[in-house]
Design goal:
By secondary structure, the protein is mainly alpha-helical. It has six helices and three strands; from the N terminus they run H-H-E-H-H-E-E-H-H. Helix 1 packs antiparallel against helix 5.
């Protein structure tokens, strides 16, 4: 059990957990010849085929040039294809290729392994409760970002000069 107050430890524990899970996922994904970042792109495209490349960059909070390099690699491996948008030829939409399906099946198993390892020793009921609590925390932070408490509503910006 951690020592000290929740205020003192919560954010550090959350950050450290995030770092450790990423490192573990990187290591395990390498077994399948893929990076965690490539895995994340494949998973997003699987969930929302036809997604614009620019939308994916925004969702993943990634610079467009970084995402472009990842997608180039996934295209070179035959896992993703870019298709032109019917209404805007500047836009690329992303689709899975048939060759990605077996890899995604293996990665689904790997996701389950990662989750089982992380939740070892935690009962299913406690795991569901934890997930629910994490969703509440996410919503609290999302609301704080969208409605900052330190900004008075409807206050006009003062202009000088």
């Amino acid at each position: 059990m951690p020592r000290g107050s929740v205020d003192m430890n919560f954010l550090f524990a959350l950050g450290e957990l995030n770092r450790l899970v990423r490192a573990y996922a990187d290591k395990q994904a390498a077994r399948h010849g893929i990076t965690r970042a490539q895995w994340a792109v494949l998973a997003k495209v699987e969930r929302t085929e036809g997604l614009k490349q620019s939308e994916l960059a925004e969702q993943m909070e990634m610079q467009p040039i970084t995402l472009t390099r990842l997608i180039d690699k996934l295209c070179d491996n035959g896992w993703i294809e870019r298709r032109n948008d019917d209404t805007d030829r500047r836009v690329n939409r992303l689709y899975l290729r048939k060759a990605a399906r077996p890899l995604l099946g293996k990665l689904g198993g790997l996701r389950s392994e990662l989750t089982a390892t992380a939740l070892e020793g935690i009962s299913p009921a406690d795991a569901h409760r934890l997930l629910s609590q994490l969703e509440t925390i996410k919503e609290n932070v999302r609301n704080a970002i969208q409605n900052p408490a330190d900004v008075p509503p409807n206050k006009k910006e003062q202009r000088y000069g």
